[in-house]
Amino acid sequence: MSKRSSKPADLNRLAAAIVGEATDETSPAVHRQKNAAAVELGRAGGRKGGKARAAKLTPAERSEAARKAAKARWSRSS
Asked: Whole-angstrom Cα distance, residue 57 to residue 19?
């Protein structure tokens, strides 16, 4: 089985990748370090977000959200 090419299918991205390899340039995002404190705050907010949102919903809103989710699940299965 042949390996897939790591080159992008889009011609503009392919050209940029070729130029980047030829000039040995990498994007600045590759070297960026994440702030550990910011990562921890984001994680804490993400963990409590769903429960906080669910607590604010009325029973009718919760029922509508559940109906919409079930419809989405069943539409994918066919």
From this structure: 52
